[in-house]
Amino acid sequence: MALINFRQQSFRKKLILALFIAALLAFAAASAAFMLFEHLSLESRARQVMEPYAQLVSVGAEAAVAFEDSGRSQEILDTLRANPQILEAQINLRDGRMLARYSIRSNTALPQPLPTANGIYLDRNTAVLVQSMQDNAYLYLAMNLDELNRQTRNTLRVFAIGVVVLLATVALGLLAALQKSIVGPISTLAETVEQVHSHADYSQRVLTSGTDEVARLGQSFNAMMDTIQEHEDDLRRLMLFQRTILDNVAYGIISTAPDGTVTSFNRAAERLLGYTADEVIGKQTPALWHDTEEVAQYALHLSEELGETIAPGFAVFSARPRRNLPEEKEWSFIRKDGARVPVLLSVTALRTESGLITGFVGLTYDLTERKQAEDELRRHKDQLEETVQQRTADLLLARDAAEAANKAKSLFLAHMSHELRTPLNGILGYAQILQRDELVGERKAAALNVIRQSGEYLQALIDDILDLSRIETGKLDFVLSNISLAKFLRGVTDIVGLRARQKGLEFSCEPAPDLPVGIRCDERRLRQVLLNLLTNAVKFTDSGQVVLRVGRVGASRFFFAVEDTGIGIDRNELELIFQPFEQVGDLQRRLGGTGLGLAISRQLVRYLGGDIVVESRAGKGSIFRFEVEAASSSTPVLLNPVQVITGYYGPRRKVLIVDDVASNRAVLIDLLTPLGFDIVEAFNGIEALELAQSTRPDLILMDIVMPKMDGEEATHLLRQLPALAQVPIIALSASALTADETKCLEAGANAFLPKPVDQDELLAQMAALMQLEWITMPRTELTPNQGKLAEMLILPPAAEMQELYRLALTGNMRDILQYAERIAGIDPSYQAFAMHLRQLANGYQSKAILAFAEAHLP
């Protein structure tokens, strides 16, 4: 109760009471501190009184104690009677016997047993001093403390009066100062706050002066009132803005209390439903404008969805918002005049920051125009569907016709490819066979090389046409294989180098020193792109040089750059050159090609993970550069180019050759018979089955396209025969369909080679499948007496031989002659080696130089 009364008092009375309590506490604390000080100093004051007497007795009784003279000792103690505060004195010898004693009381004031440690021992009214004397005797003095206690009480009385006066003066001064600096301003502030609270007058302010806390409080109050007034003005503007929006917005806004009582109804809602705000505010919804049957059906739907019973009524609209779920549905509202209006109603719960629902707001959109537009759109959609169905039928007919035309084109190209590749197989096959003959002279060997390169060029043109067709239909296939870079680049440079030399151009290949032994890529596609770019460079270069540069730009990314000093390309024609059948340059140069090469090459490079970039200046030359993704591989060279196969070790092997074209069989027979193979021929698949069972061959070379029974079916049937299930089968095909390889391998073939057949690759496959070891001999026309020559010549270090091999790959005779001169100057012992190298270079025997370098690589 007292606490309640205190809280109801004014700030001034509270302050006076607080000062009074503080003064009392200060007085109590000071008194307690003084008493504690007096108590703690009591021992010191007692010592000041007793120690002189103890010293006097000790000195006077020194001889008496020494001689144990109790009479003299008693006389000395009796001198203490002059001080009535000394209650008792006693001298004890070292053995505890009392020598003399003085006391003014009958009972002793000394503690029992008597202490032996020097010092003062205090009790309530007595102080006992213990002091050792000569010969371990002890003096005991007991003093009455009444006088000292009386002095303490007198001092405390004076101190208390002084403290009370001081505290009263300080309290009154503080009260006056606080009345002026705190109580007055706070009272004024309280009165101002009452004015603001009672009249909502936010213009009230308080006068402030100074910089103390009370002044800052007044300043803060004024600043708060400024802010409140600004917010009040903003709130009025916001309410006006909201009211303007509510009254002019195009859709109806209806707000309700948590129980569904309508609290606001804007003008758009009045126009939509025909009711005025006064007619609906304060009433329950949905009783006025909702269809009860719709509400009941939706209540059943919500009950099933939410897993609890939702009663028809306002709960239908608030069930989902109460659960923080969206509520949006189309309804049929009933206007005041009875007309039905389709609307979209969206309901949202109004929540406080703590999540308490304070009401709901519904947004209503009139869907009348949208429904009309939907009906119109539905009619148009039906008409459009009829039109689309008719157009679709027409397009299906057009598609079938196009597919038939594409199929006919594909079959035509496949047939033409087969018909062209069949004679090419004979031409290139015999060219390769004759090139292996050591009796062929150098002149005839050059002619054979021209025949082979021309045939391969014709084959490349056929591939270009087929590839363009595959690119157009999206059926271009890629076959990844391990490629020996040295062999691959040598094959490309041999073809292009001949054409360059025929035009009097310098041609070189500059591989980077960090190239791996091999890469994994589509060899045929990569060769196709390089040959196209290099033949174009030779074609459009009249003087100067053509350079092929190969390097590495990443762990699995390589670049190829073809640089020439030709006629160059105008800037406006740089993109034109990649269009099919488009050519640039004069008419004579255009007659040298089909205009497909660059278009196909760009598509192939993009499939390989890169693109062709061109840098060119008219009259200065061009640089075509591209990059490809290719993993490094350790691919050994399948056949040493300076070695010629003459046979194989082990028993004779039998090969069944199946082909309906006699010239194709003849090429294979002439290739394999000199190597020691027994040959059996079959005209078609049926004959192949019969001969395979009767002759039991060690290997079957199976053509694919044949009359009566094709190679794919024959291979499948052979694999069904237990005796022939493990016989190796190599499929040979001149077909242009890329799916043939997959079909043949699925039928049971062990390998697939396209026609015209690369004989080196064929022999390598045969060796792998039959586990043959070839018998070889040096290619004498390229490296005469290599064994004896190696014995006679002193070769330079391995690094120099690597350099020679790199120069040999480029085919630049001038660089090789300079290399020979440099080697001769290193050591006189290399003179014979340099002379042999000069002879080969002066005779333009690039293959012999390459073979010589390869044969002596470390």
Can you characterise this structure?
This protein has a 5-stranded antiparallel β-sheet with strand order 2-1-5-4-3. A 5-stranded antiparallel β-sheet has the order 7-6-10-9-8. It is α+β, with helices and mostly antiparallel strands and 858 residues long. The chain contains 26 helices and 25 strands. Mean pLDDT is 79; it is low at 586-594, 635-642 and 780-791.
Distance between the termini: 113 Å
Low-confidence stretches: 586-594, 635-642, 780-791
In percent, how helical is the residue content?
A: 40-55%
Strand content: 15-25%
The description of the largest β-sheet is: 5 strands, antiparallel
Q: Quaternary arrangement of the chains shown?
A: single chain
Question: What class, by secondary structure content?
Answer: alpha+beta
Mean pLDDT: 79
- Which word captures the global form? elongated
| Quantity of strands, as a count | 25
Spatial extent as radius of gyration: 61 Å
Question: What is the tally of helical segments?
Answer: 26
